[in-house]
Fold these 2 entries.
Entry 1:
Amino acid sequence: DAMVIQNPRYQVTQFGKPVTLSCSQTLNHNVMYWYQQKSSQAPKLLFHYYDKDFNNEADTPDNFQSRRPNTSFCFLDIRSPGLGDAAMYLCATSRPGTDSYEQYFGPGTRLTVT
Amino acid sequence: AQKVTQAQTEISVVEKEDVTLDCVYETRDTTYYLFWYKQPPSGELVFLIRRNSFDEQNEISGRYSWNFQKSTSSFNFTITASQVVDSAVYFCALLNNAGNMLTFGGGTRLMVKP
């Protein structure tokens, strides 16, 4: 089945130690998104790629970076995680201009910072 | 700018009761898309429904029904004969016409007690 995959589902990292979360998709969607969702809050968009074009949200900290080496994969890099970066990170994909328009979400990676 | 408001932060019902989750939105787009997602404790966002702004027909799917009222900018979600498995956080979301901005409401935590 076509889907959005996130690995790992659970990630523990140490304060200040760089960490990378990965997302892959078999939907051949041209847009990929990264959201951060903290406990009891709504998902918050960090950035998205429209094809190869990177679009950063204005309030996304510089500590967060992203890479998209090809259509299928997108990575979220947190250069120096702080305790406040502990959250669920959700990847989503879409293909604007098609009938569905919706964003398809992966299962998320729950990041713990110790 | 667009905005989604879910005034009910938490609802508690007893199994078999009907429950309605409210959603009110603001947008300047004439074409837009509304969604409901379910987020169980596992964290994955589960797509429930999409409604286009030009389609005000209400929809029923099993125990779920949605009432879209463009005149009041509302898109309410009703669960009939609630079950314990319905316990989750439910998010209403608004997608802009360009298809690249998905705005979530704050979510409503539904607890269904046996």
Entry 2:
Amino acid sequence: SQTIHQWPATLVQPVGSPLSLECTVEGTSNPNLYWYRQAAGRGLQLLFYSVGIGQISSEVPQNLSASRPQDRQFILSSKKLLLSDSGFYLCAWSAPGGLTYEQYFGPGTRLTVT
Amino acid sequence: AQSVTQLGSHVSVSEGALVLLRCNYSSSVPPYLFWYVQYPNQGLQLLLKYTSAATLVKGINGFEAEFKKSETSFHLTKPSAHMSDAAEYFCAVSDMNRDDKIIFGKGTRLHILP
């Protein structure tokens, strides 16, 4: 069966510091991968998605970036965090080929920028 | 473009009472539809999905949803609420322009009153 991991689970970082969040998927090949953010009291905001290694689509212009160095690894980064980057970050995967659409989510990372 | 509207950002029901969470969608073609549940500080979990087969879809934890094309609705119901159902619920629709994306509603927080 497929599993999705995210780490760290929680993170407190000062403004201006760098960020690296990691997501890995097991038990599937060539998944579509997604990064979402949930700000307090708000819905899901799609940040990035990837349909293959090195293929990243950005949904929202911001100071965040994403990379996919391996088939089942998705990394969210920032060079300098802003207060507004605080939130709950979720990684998700879906099967390739558009046959089923549903996405499966990781446990999330709670980021607090101070 | 596809969109999802969830009526009511907060819904309260008494334990044992009927749960009804409303979702309306807009789509120019028959969509795939989903309901997800999110418990505090956790990722989203797929409750059920509609993929153009039976219009009444049964999911996990006793939830079900009915696809009504004439009303463009996909409301989530459960006959008898349990305290453990307290969570946030998201309705989502497939993005028919991109076979690798789904569009989420803003979510409804369900409160269960003892």
